Amino acid sequence: MMNKVLFISPTVYSNPVTKDIQKKFQSLSKVCNPVVFAFSEEKFSSIVEGVETIFNKKNKNRFLNYLNIIFLFFFKIPKIIKDRNVEIVCLQDPITGFFTIFSLKIRKLPVKIIVETHGDFIETIGLEKNLLLPKFYTSIFSYLAKYSIKNADLIRSISDFTEKQVVNFGYQGSFVRFPAWINIDYFLNADIKRSTSDTFKIIFVGSVTERKNPKIIIESLETINKDISLEIIGQTPNLKYLKKLNNLISSSKHSDRIILTPYINSEELIKKYSSANLFILPSKSEGLGRVVIEAQATACPVLVSSGTGIVDLIIESETGYIFENNNRDDLNKKIQNIIENYDVAIQTGLNSRDFVKNNQSIENFEFGYRKLFDLVST
Q1: How far apart are CA 281 and CA 207, in angstroms?
Q2: C-alpha separations of 261 from 212, 230, 240, 295 in Å
Q3: Which of 36, 124, 184, 339 has a Cα-to-Cα distance from 27 of 20 to 30 A?
Q4: How far is CA 280 from CA 129, 132, 207, 268, 370, in A?
Q5: Sheet holding 33-40, edge to edge
Q6: Burial of residue 239 (number of CB atoms within 10 Å: 0-12, 13-18, 19+)
Q7: CA-CA distances (angstroms) from residue 128 to 13, 236, 241?
């Protein structure tokens, strides 16, 4: 008999959920009896691919939304656990997860606790959200995360980077590492139309923030004379950073070929990956970077920053390229080298496609959760 597992996340889902999320839920229902507790623009509950979903309305005011999360995680979650005989609680975030864990401990509910670490959770919340007094918030978030990690029965990680971060918070237990959810077949089946004769197309995909660091790409292109274009795809929670980026673009010699695209749908994104000559993710910190996997699945050559979880996906000059973190000159040299030896870069793209096909499959995702639940139950 499969475990009853409650997945708790501050993630905001659409109503109805996307086909991609439906497929994810379908995978979860193969390895456990899941209940998903998360957020949406409106409050609703439903059964999706055999998964009970409980979605709470997200408050548009950031402060009120945090208060709502605290209230729900502290009071509503224990009732759900009791009413549904939940055996395992799986927390998608160690910071907001604090309120659930604290509530479970004082109530002495007999459930196993799994904390998942998908990325650099302190940097993401403390810096990307453009909070006032970010150092103050970072210290608070660090305390909350440390409590959650200390009281976890097991940690699910996605990279060596995320494991080291958790160890730095005092965790001494075991890890189960497996990839984040990606419907990889969706990208593997892309219609690739990558040209080598026209403009050399570079793309960035991700939140437009200081941590993701797209600014350094613009700076590194200034001494490249080839016919080149850059498209930065992603939204930003930090309008001050966006203003800096726009000013930098205006002063660039490539200004007429640098495009900011706040949002595109999945179909258009796949087309972007499939036609780009190079994908760059220059994050200062990163748990893994699922966008890199998406790009690799379309055989797009990738260039990423060192010292992050992304490097778990890269064998230098075989499945991609690595430049020194936040080093504009090294990034420039790597771009120049890729352009001048693009036949080699094309082969790295093909290699990386095979790599993600073998290592980032849905079957690996399901096996990882099965192993996670088996270990925490023993």
Answers
A1: 11
A2: 15, 11, 17, 17
A3: 124
A4: 23, 30, 13, 18, 33
A5: 44-48, 51-57, 33-40, 4-13, 88-91, 112-116, 154-157, 175-177
A6: exposed
A7: 20, 8, 9
The encoded tokens of residue 155 equal 């940690």
Instruction: Name, in order, each residue with C-beta under 8 angstroms of 24's C-beta and a sequence gap of 6 or more.
Output: 181, 183
- Both tokens of 116, joined, read 């998942």
In this predicted model, what pLDDT tens digit does every residue of 287-324 receive, in sequence order? 888 999 999 999 999 999 999 989 999 999 999 999 99
Residue with tokens 């919340």: 125
| Residue 110, phi then psi, degrees to nearest 5 | -85, 70
Spatial contact of 162 and 94, defined as CB atoms under 8 Å apart = no
Structure tokens at 232: 């930065």
Tell me the per-residue pLDDT of 156-189, one tens digit each, with 9 for 90 and over: 999 888 899 899 888 988 899 998 899 898 899 9
Question: What's the rounded Cα separation, in Å, for the pair 301 and 345?
Answer: 6
Give me the residue label for tokens 């940690």.
155
Q: Can you list the domains of the chain with their CATH numbers?
A: 4-182+361-377 (3.40.50.2000), 184-359 (3.40.50.2000)
Whole-number Å distance between alpha carbons of 7 and 88: 9
Cα distance between residue 28 and residue 193, in whole Å? 34
φ, ψ dihedrals at 182, nearest 5°: -145, 130
pLDDT tens-digit series, residues 214-241: 999 999 999 998 899 999 999 987 888 8
Q: Phi first, then psi: give them for residue 79, nearest 5 degrees.
A: -65, -40
pLDDT of residue 132: 62
Of residues 290, 263, 297, the one with CA closest to residue 191? 297
Mention every residue, 6+ apart, whose C-beta is less than 8 A from residue 206: 212, 214, 233, 234, 281, 283, 289, 291
